[in-house]
Amino acid sequence: MKKALALVLAAAMALSLAACGSTPSSTPASGSTPASAAGSTPAAAGKVYYLNFKPEQDQQWQDLAALYTEQTGVPVTVVTAASGTYETTLMAEMGKSEAPTLFQVNGPVGLANWKDYCYDLAGSDIYGQLTSEDYALKEGDVVYGIGYVIESYGLITNTELLGQAGYTVEDIQSFDDLKKVAEDITARKDELGFAAFTSAGMDSSSDWRFKTHLANLPIYFEYKDEGITSTDAIKGTYLDNYKNIWDLYINNSTCAPTELAAKTADDSLNEFLAGEAVFYQNGSWEYGNVTGEGKYTDDQLAMIPIYIGVGDEANQGLCTGTENYWCVNNMAPEEDIQATLDFMNWCVTSEEGTTAMANDMGFVIPFKAAQESPNLFVKEDAAMTAAGKTPVSWNFTTMPSEEWKNMLGTALTAYAAGTGSWDDVVSAFVDNWATEYQLANG
């Protein structure tokens, strides 16, 4: 009955999104036509529909899907949800007769909404390829999801501009160091010709960097203090530190704080590429977007930790973890489930799949056949860890709901614009956490 109700709700959501003109950001891969039509390998009985979470890797997944279809004859469709819309897109797509066979949840909280739709991956080939069970989303003996990529984020740094300002990355080992450098660059902005930070855009394509990734820092340090890995009521112990880093971003940026509501992820990236700012908060997944022909080389870049003035900052590493868990739709026809399992396993074991994931997508994948990624930011994370620095774990997967993130984002935007107070941000963080947790868990 619960499943039936969920499908009814999803169908209603699909109609609502269609009426609003909201659609996924990409179309099915060209490989969705079986290769047997061209007289090659006979098509298998099943087909694959992958609803991709990562817009920055859309083209790479389209290419990989087309290659798999060319080799096997199995139709593979890849649709990529627009940034910040994955959950609503998934709800809409699951209400259709041709629903995704492969989808994603972001951890235990995301799993709660979709557990009834998750095929048990225990005993599957891909589960056997994991290098550690830590990357499996499990409850008891049931494996609901498989983590398929480990990533890091921090402050992507233009080392040439930093040098022009008279500093090196070694000069930044704490929040106080970062503040000193950023404010000095701002004081000499006209002379230098660039700002400290790219715009902290709060448009839906960009706000996840701050309401989710930046918000992870105060959560991480609170959890560390309390010796916990989740909570039904966050205390907000380190929200003053969250305020300090947010203030530093918005007051030492390429634009005025009042302009952030309309600034997008593309704005921030383009500012960095144009040499308009030294620091750009983002992750290892952006490596392909900041390097390559006409862009930066590795010796012009670095990634440094996001310091907020808490803990042993000299030994703090990058924020490293995963919120990307593959799940297989157990409502799909049996032949489509098998086709999807085969495709997943091929992605993480074949030369073509592992090469694409390492080189084209820049992924570190937690599977036995993984290739070493050429991604500079991945290498820097490994070097920091080898040097004894402690990575900041990803705890935003415990945030109680998407609505909690949205309310926090709204409060941050209003505070930056001067139409709201920091007390509103604290309330959105602390009070809404308890409220949303209760709504989600009863």
Using brief descriptors, characterize the structure shown.
single chain, 442 residues, alpha/beta, D-Maltodextrin-Binding Protein, domain 2, four-stranded antiparallel beta sheet, 18 helices, 44% helix, disordered N terminus
Overview of the structural elements:
By secondary structure, the chain is an alpha/beta fold. It has 2 domains: 2-150 and 322-368, D-Maltodextrin-Binding Protein, domain 2 (3-Layer(aba) Sandwich), CATH 3.40.190; 152-319 and 384-441, D-Maltodextrin-Binding Protein, domain 2, CATH 3.40.190. It has helices at residues 2-20, 58-72, 86-94, 108-114, 125-129, 159-164, 175-187, 189-192, 208-214, 216-226, 239-251, 265-273, 287-290, 334-349, 351-360, 376-386, 402-417, 422-441; strands spanning 48-52, 76-80, 102-105, 136-139, 142-147, 151-158, 195-197, 277-283, 301-304, 316-321, 325-328, 390-393. Strands 6, 7, 8, 9, 10 and 12 form a 6-stranded mixed sheet that branches. Strands 3-11-5-4 form a 4-stranded antiparallel sheet. A two-stranded parallel ribbon has the order 1-2. A hairpin with a 2-residue loop joins strand 4 (136-139) and strand 5.
